[in-house]
Amino acid sequence: xxxxxxxxxxxxxxxxxxxxxxxxxxxxxxxxxxxxxxxxxxxxxxxxxxxxxxxxxxxxxxxxxxxxxxxxxxxxxxxxxxxxxxxxxxxxxxxxxxxxxxxxxxxxxxxxxxxxxxxxxxxxxxxxxxxxxxxxxxxxxxxxxxxxxxxxxxxxxxxxxxxxxxxxxxxxxxxxxxxxxxxxxxxxxxxxxxxxxxxxxxxxxxxxxxxxxxxxxxxxxxxxxxxxxxxxxxxxxxxxxxxxxxxxxxxxxxxxxxxxxxxxxxxxxxxxxxxxxxxxxxxxxxxxxxxxxxxxxxxxxxxxxxxxxxx
Amino acid sequence: xxxxxxxxxxxxxxxxxxxxxxxxxxxxxxxxxxxxxxxxxxxxxxxxxxxxxxxxxxxxxxxxxxxxxxxxxxxxxxxxxxxxxxxxxxxxxxxxxxxxxxxxx
Lengths: 311, 105
Prior knowledge:
The complex is a heterodimer of chains A (311) and B (105). Chain A has 311 residues and is an all-alpha fold. Chain A is built from 15 helices and no strands. Helix content of chain B is 24%, strand content 36%. In chain B, the strands form 2 sheets. Chain B has a 4-stranded antiparallel β-sheet, with helices on one face. In chain B, strands 3-4 form a two-stranded antiparallel sheet. In chain B, a hairpin with a 2-residue loop joins strand 3 and strand 4. Chains A and B meet through helix 2, helix 11, helix 14 and helix 15 of A and loops of B.
């Protein structure tokens, strides 16, 4: 078994057993900053080798996925889950957006197996992060005048995740290879170790959701399991349509399957305050993140292979 | 013992979600708070436990020392604007200060 997955299980077990183990928030912040920068840098370095305009279809299709996913999730949540409009919109936005943590684990999963993937996927990660937030707000409020769109834009485009990812991309893109060598030990060589600490903390955070899981019941659990499977199918098909390799196709599946827990909760809290944040975070952190990391990744790899062999 | 005249001010303490920090400080500036102090906080309340292990899960504690009218204005505004949808508690108490001119808006 992959050691980083075991770190996640350790955190999960420690949390469920109510261990005293807690990482200081500063550690979590630092580790997530490093992960975001590493992913951005890696993408930026590879993008140097590629003409930018070729990426237009990929970006457009990814934007479409981000717009589509919440629109599909929303009616399911209101009709079958009987959620209030604001709650359904907020959950839908979480599932339309992405989880950088899940993406990082997927990248490490591919690296362990020596499988390559398209270098511009970090860019698509950024692209997919944003549209679902806007769709979620519109679903909750309609396009009413009282939404302060300037505030929303500030929240969305200047959130920590986007700034670090785009910042990393730009730094990687603008730097000379010799210059990058000097920072590689921290950002590239230590990537898996940092990811391990991150997953330890994610295990603790996911375990803390167990209580609300019991309270909100079966529908949320079912939704948290089925939505990523559906998303992975959409993502994998998109990857295949764009002519990506099997590795890239898998990462597209992972992007579409994952649910946000950083950018979207922050934006929703401000823009759709009446939505209960416990619902969406329970689904995305308590169910979908563990599912994707523990069960989803090998599944999405098989899906990517299957699509490449049969279509 | 009073050190000088007019030494009483109000201490307004707000404990709320860290997500509100930017908006809250903007409101405080607009409502004429002469200054504020923010500390990270964690705890448990009606809206569950906040362990402050990561950003979405943290609280802040905001303290403002100001004159009665400003305190009243801030308290009313926060109650109206945030009480319904956010985890927030707000308390007021009298404090004695050494430099009253510092806490006038």
